[in-house]
Amino acid sequence: MRPINRDRSQGEPYLTYWPVAQIHSMDDPVLLTGAGGRVGEAILEGLADEYEWRLLLHSPPDEEPDHEYMIGDVTDEALVRAAVEGVGAVIHLAGDPRPEASWDSVLSNNIDGTQKMYEAAVDEGVEKFVYASSNHAVGAFETDERTPEMYREDDDFLLDGTELPRPGNLYGVSKATGEVLGRYYHDQYGIDVCNVRIGNLTRGHPPIDYERGQAMWLSYPDCAHLHQRALEADYDFEIVYGISDNDRKYYSIERAREALGYDPQDNSAHFEGEERVEQP
Q1: pLDDT value, residue 274
Q2: Do the Cβ atoms of 116 and 153 come closer than 8 Å?
Q3: In this predicted model, what pLDDT tens digit does every residue of 133-162 receive, in sequence order?
Q4: Does 186 reside within a domain?
């Protein structure tokens, strides 16, 4: 059993232990927030039959989902608590995804909404919290001096998740803040947290001359596999990069391999346009 701090009073944390019956297992539903977005689409395409899903959607879907779902906003605390009730794990994708989003929007939707989700998860006894961070949390590493060379296979610049955040926009600030919230809730309450800094997720392949997109490409199948490993692996707190096994890369996937057992199958070098070419 893992230590859980259930005392929210001031002073030194008081560690106690939950009986096993009070810790939800992977036999319980998995809550997928922001399920209507691109990442949610990739996860459900690959893992629809692997778990009992509960979906949280911001807007009514065009077609009736095959899974239990709720419609609402992560800034609604009552809705968040209802969504988290009885689940064993949370994959939190919801928020304003726009790189140009305003401070008011990311503060409400991305920061406050994530904090509400963590509070509800801790109170419910959720075992794992998988947080959709972003390449924008470290976007300012892409300086004029480093680009475009850092997008190329022969460049040795590499981020591995141990570096401090360096956001290049307020959206990135909100994603970095979400990672820090995860650190706090793990340290204080023992919930297992995996932050996934998602790269360039596309169904089709990025144009072959789009060097940045090639270097941080994440295929739909690899996205689903990575999130499955984040649900199944044994870890405490992690920050990993969510990209495929590209020849060109400036994000390391070694920590995802080591901590989660991530084994990506796709590589941006093995595609030309929409067609897979013979592997060299």
Answers
A1: 58
A2: no
A3: 999 999 999 999 999 999 999 999 999 999
A4: yes
Distance, in Å, from the CA atom of 40 to the CA atom of 96, rounded to the nearest integer, reads 14
Q: In total, how many domains does the chain have?
A: 1
Looking up tokens 């629809």, which residue turns up?
48
**For residue 74, what is the enclosing H or E element?**
none
Is the residue at 189 inside a domain?
yes
Indicate the annotated binding residues for NAD(+): 109, 134, 171, 175
Residue 2, in any domain of the structure: no
Instruction: Give the integer Cα–Cα distance in Å for 141 and 74.
Output: 30
CA distance linking residue 72 with residue 33, whole number of Å:
10
Structural domain contains residue 11: no
How many angstroms separate the CA atoms of 105 and 90, rounded?
A: 22
Alpha carbons 264 and 122: distance in angstroms, whole number: 31
CA pair distance 184, 129, nearest whole angstrom: 13
Residues assigned a catalytic role: 171
Tell me the CATH number at 246: 3.40.50.720
Question: Tokens representing 94?
Answer: 């919801």
Give the range of the structural domain holding residue 262, as residue numbers without chain letter: 25-276
How many CB atoms lie under 10 A from the CB of residue 103?
12
